[in-house]
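Ops channel
N.P.: pipeline sanity check, posting one input/output pair.
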């Protein structure tokens, strides 16, 4: 049977400096009429970590009651803590690796309240400022945001209502990057239909803690409820870039709106705020929404389970499926894959960790995975693969104006089957009714802006797909005009050109043909402004085009000019012309524009003809070219560090200068200066002349200074007797090792050393040379142990910054590589992971120093012969 993971480890941050409220909810039961008023029994429930012994729940705490319609404050109640209980557990499932201890306190505030019957209904609110810190699905550096917990009482005649109440267990475990399935169902005593969805967690905006304390002096650090809560509306917490209120655990986790079942793949380790809303729906109308807000701690445990997505969609184009088990538990050692078609015939089997198969024919296939057959923690799972290429979601919309119906048209195509399911979300954040299950729905937006419209479509073959598209909602339909101001020379006519969706009307009607089209023809005899009106389903817009009438073309080119040979020049006539023809065309980038760019190597006369309709004018300009002076700075060169270089400049001009990026400068007055750059530098040789081209010519020579040799022989190391040691020097191009004892070569950078007897310290020297022959030397020390391969880890460390024993680190001897070195705290939280010998944990989590205590470490490695090495133990952090 498929193993179901447990969800929602509700604990606070393990840091001693973090705050402690990890979640809460409020619910009520209608008690009847008491003293002539509807009366309700209300329960406020809050969670906090057991690992914050100096923190307490607030007693008393404030409960605010507000008008549900306008947010007006009705009253504030100070309610004492009714009771407190502790829940704790550690999973005993042998198939869960590194199961953490779960422990939290639950506080209850229970009271009765009588409220006058109101058509608007009520919102009950409790707020705290000490929500736990370091929440992973919020923006980094968000600071203290607090939490707001609410319950809604509907207005008359529905006031005799008992709220929905969540019934799921909170004493649960969730493992990072593992699949899970957990029912977040609620019960409703009135029998209302319930609809579940992820929603935004509320922060506490505009609320101050009043200096801390327990609301009425209850303890050293209380709930910070020392003043009444602020009135609605309430604001969302600042979610990070990969999360939102609708996806608090990322895009791999979903909630079933009808059952409250949450399924998917958990994100990485850390603390995540999750809020689930449940709507009470009576006679098709949502009468109230109840919320549960939790911070869940996802740990580094793993579950040995066969884990797949429930469905794999190969419905667009590809018929190839590559799939792997989603569980990364180290306890899984064997795999068996079996793909079968709808007739039960097996089409593919494999024992590989990853299955890869291309289906030869469309159809619905069953994917089966069995893990650890005949071993501890066996498991199996089945999933469906829908292989029906040619299913392509698409939609369009007609209309884009506020307060006007926008028609959405499904344009999904499918090669097989028929489209039979539509789930629209119109992306209007201000409404909870912006959805539809019709094929071609209409929706009226109350405000402007870009709306992310989402369509989920299914077909009768089982294919499912989602398309999200941005739709701009405007206050009027857009009109596109090709031009807004132009000229015409009678008796010619002109075509006006516009774009948009709707009915076009142009005015005035004189001298116009096609006034009810997007692109009419006009032939005015005097300057005329034409207006275009666009009507899109009653949504109106207006724009205009000015047509000026002339009886000739004005045209004048600048005076003849001189340029440097090969330089581009922009020809700029003064004219009211609209069309242009330039000659010679070969020397111009665009011979039909008003201001073309000419590039010539000899003196050239250009002619241009400008026209408006049938009116034309012509003018000429002569451009004379003068060659640039010659400038050559010499070839780039390479010198050793702190050496000199000889430059060689060459020019046919009458003047020159040298400039450089080097701080030592360059001697002036000579074309052949001697320079000593401190580092690689560019030297710019500039030449000018007086023959008519006034522009200087520059050339650059780069003198590359080789860096000072920094020879490196390698880090000091330790090996075991008989282990080949791969040396690896760096810093140059030629290497010489000494002494030659035990070396496979003395003239390469990476010889192999082999020792036949133990030694406490053997010293090698390497001399390194670069391409210019510069040299430097370095040393390394080798210790040879007469022992088996080993990883040494200290039993205690003192991370106080004194440079002595500041890290819990592995020292590898006879080890080829460390695959992982992991450290866990007493709650099973992974606090460090690394692979480097001699480098380890500094006693901090996210920059916060951890308290003294015992920590568990594990190391896995391969020795120099390729055999696996595994070891675990404990170490004490001392402060």
């Amino acid at each position: 049977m498929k193993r179901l993971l447990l969800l929602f480890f509700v604990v606070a941050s393990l840091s001693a400096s973090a705050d402690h409220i990890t979640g809460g909810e409020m619910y009520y039961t209608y008690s009847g009429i008491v003293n002539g008023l509807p009366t309700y029994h209300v329960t406020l429930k809050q969670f906090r970590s057991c690992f914050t012994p100096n923190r307490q729940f607030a007693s008393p705490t404030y409960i605010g009651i507000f008008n549900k319609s306008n947010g007006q404050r009705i009253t504030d109640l100070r309610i004492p803590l009714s009771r407190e209980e502790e829940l704790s557990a550690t999973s005993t499932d042998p198939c869960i690796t590194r199961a953490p201890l779960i422990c939290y306190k639950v506080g209850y505030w229970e009271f009765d309240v009588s409220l006058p019957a109101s058509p608007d209904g009520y919102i009950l609110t409790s707020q705290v400022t000490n929500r736990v810190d370091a929440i992973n699905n919020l923006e980094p550096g968000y600071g203290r945001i607090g939490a707001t917990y609410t319950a809604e009482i509907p207005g008359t005649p529905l006031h005799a209502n008992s709220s929905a109440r969540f019934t799921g267990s909170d004493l649960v475990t969730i493992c990072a990057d593992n699949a899970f399935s957990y029912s977040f169902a609620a019960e409703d005593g009135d029998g209302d239909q319930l609809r579940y969805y992820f929603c935004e967690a509320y922060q506490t905006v505009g609320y101050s803690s009043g200096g801390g304390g327990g609301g009425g002096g209850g303890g050293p650090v209380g709930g910070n409820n020392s003043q009444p809560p602020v009135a609605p509306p309430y604001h969302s917490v600042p979610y990070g870039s990969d999360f939102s209120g609708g996806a608090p655990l990322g895009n791999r986790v979903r909630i079933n709106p009808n059952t409250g079942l949450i399924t998917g793949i958990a994100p990485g380790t850390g603390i995540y705020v999750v809020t689930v809303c449940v709507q009470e729906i009576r006679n098709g109308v949502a009468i109230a929404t109840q919320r549960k807000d939790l911070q869940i701690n996802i740990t580094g445990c793993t579950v040995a389970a066969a884990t797949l997505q429930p469905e794999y969609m190969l419905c667009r184009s590809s018929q190839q499926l590559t799939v792997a088990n989603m569980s990364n538990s180290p306890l899984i050692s064997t795999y068996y894959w079996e793909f079968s078609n709808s007739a039960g015939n097996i089409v593919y089997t494999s024992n590989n960790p990853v299955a890869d198969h291309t289906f030869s024919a469309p159809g619905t296939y069953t994917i089966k995975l069995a893990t650890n057959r005949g071993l501890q923690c066996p498991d199996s799972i089945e999933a469906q693969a829908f292989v029906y290429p040619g299913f392509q979601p698409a939609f369009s919309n007609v209309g884009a104006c506020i307060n006007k119906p926008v028609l959405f048209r499904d344009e999904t195509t499918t090669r097989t089957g028929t489209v039979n399911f539509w789930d629209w979300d119109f992306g209007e954040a201000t409404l909870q009714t912006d959805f539809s299950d019709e094929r071609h729905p209409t929706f009226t937006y109350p405000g402007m802006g870009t709306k992310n419209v989402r369509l989920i479509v299914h077909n009768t073959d089982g294919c499912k797909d989602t398309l999200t598209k941005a739709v701009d909602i405007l206050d009027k339909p857009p009109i596109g005009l090709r031009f807004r101001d132009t000229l015409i020379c009678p008796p010619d006519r002109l075509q006006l050109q516009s774009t948009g969706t709707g009915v076009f009307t142009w005015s005035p009607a004189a001298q116009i043909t096609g006034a009810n089209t997007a692109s009419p023809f006009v032939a005015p005899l005097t300057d005329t402004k034409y207006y275009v009106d666009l009507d899109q389903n009653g949504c109106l817009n207006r724009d205009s085009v000015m047509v000026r009438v002339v009886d000739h073309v004005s045209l004048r080119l600048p005076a003849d000019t001189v340029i440097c040979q090969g330089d581009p020049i922009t020809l700029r006539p003064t004219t009211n012309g609209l069309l242009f023809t330039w000659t010679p065309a070969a020397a111009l980038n665009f011979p039909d524009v008003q201001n073309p760019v000419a590039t010539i190597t000899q003196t050239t006369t250009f002619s241009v003809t400008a026209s408006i309709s049938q009116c034309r004018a012509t003018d000429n300009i002569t451009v004379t070219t003068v060659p640039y002076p010659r400038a050559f700075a010499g070839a780039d060169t390479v010198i050793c560090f702190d050496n000199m270089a000889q430059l060689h400049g060459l020019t046919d001009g009458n003047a020159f200068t040298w400039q450089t990026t080097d701080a030592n400068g360059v001697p002036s007055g000579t074309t052949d200066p001697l320079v000593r750059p401190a580092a690689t530098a560019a030297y710019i040789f500039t030449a000018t002349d007086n023959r008519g081209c006034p522009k200087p010519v520059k050339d650059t020579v780069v003198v590359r200074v080789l860096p000072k040799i920094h020879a490196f022989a390698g880090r000091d190391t330790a090996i075991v007797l008989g282990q080949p040691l791969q040396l690896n020097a760096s810093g140059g191009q030629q290497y010489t090792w000494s002494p030659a004892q035990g070396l496979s070569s003395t003239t390469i950078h990476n010889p192999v050393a082999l020792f036949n007897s133990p030694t406490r310290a053997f010293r090698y020297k390497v001399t390194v040379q670069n391409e210019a022959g510069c040299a430097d030397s370095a040393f390394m020390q080798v210790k040879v142990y007469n022992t088996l391969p080993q990883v040494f880890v200290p039993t205690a460390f003192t991370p106080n910054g004194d440079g002595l024993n500041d890290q819990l680190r592995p020292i590898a001897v006879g080890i080829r590589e460390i695959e992982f070195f992991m450290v866990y705290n007493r709650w099973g939280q992974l606090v460090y992971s690394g692979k480097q010998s001699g480098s380890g944990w500094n006693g901090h989590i996210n920059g916060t120093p951890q308290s003294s205590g015992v920590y568990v470490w594990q190391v896995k490695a391969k020795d120099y012969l390729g055999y696996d090495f595994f070891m675990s133990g404990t170490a004490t952090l001392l402060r």
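N.P.: looks fine end to end. The mean pLDDT is 89.
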